[in-house]
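Researcher: Structure for this, please.
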Amino acid sequence: MDTQGKYTVITGASSGIGYATAKVFAKRKKNMILVARRENNLNELKSEILQEVPELDIVIKAVDVSVSQNAHQLYQELNPYQIETWINNAGFGSYDSVSDQNLEKMEMMLRLNVEALTIFSSLYVRDYRDVEGTQLINISSAGGYTIVPTAVTYCATKFFVSAFTEGLARELKEANAKLQAKVLAPAATKTEFGKVANNTSKYDYDKIFSRYHTSDEIANFLLQLYDSNLSVGRVDREAFEFKLSKPLFDYAGNSKNNQKVN
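Model: Predicted structure, token format:
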């Protein structure tokens, strides 16, 4: 363990966007802590990275962070490391009507998409808000800015991610903190997402979507966001263009009707 070096944490790194993001950060010579449930996938990713960049330190943490106790314990285990960037990518979707959705799956989705992300974000901000060069990047969705039919609950979790992260970005800026909070909102992306969201073993993106991005494309969008001073990187799900911007939600920062704090 190179506790003197800086590390990037990526949750949900065993496949899809997380997997691709680890590969592009490796090209930036970043030591990484890779988090996911599937240890075999993480070890494969680690081997691929070290074949290309053998000098890196790649730490594997196989854990289900949808369990809040596990999330807290993982963060404590990472205390010895100097974490330069934390990327909350772990999450999944669910396509179904609210009346028919599987409540067990919905509850797990809420714990992972909302609760785990909030725990990690809050703990990281407490420790690193005044550390130069640090970033928190939370993965939302185009469905975190647009309500998609048959995905209302999923979109609601991602609206939380978008609103929480945009609000945190404003809060940090107003406090002159050195940590930057950013949100990435992809549209349709060819990953395991479709299979999990639809409870199926087969999912053909070419037949189901007229347009989609690959995980590698989204990872490169994430790098653009990482390199910028802007808070939001969003794919427009109609024009299918990626744009960087300031926060998009209305903010009542100067409202005369805000709570008065002594």
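Researcher: Any notable elements?
Model: The domain at 6-245 is CATH 3.40.50.720 (Rossmann fold). The beta strands are 6-11, 31-36, 58-62, 82-88, 135-139, 180-185, 189-190, 213-214, 232-235, 242-245.
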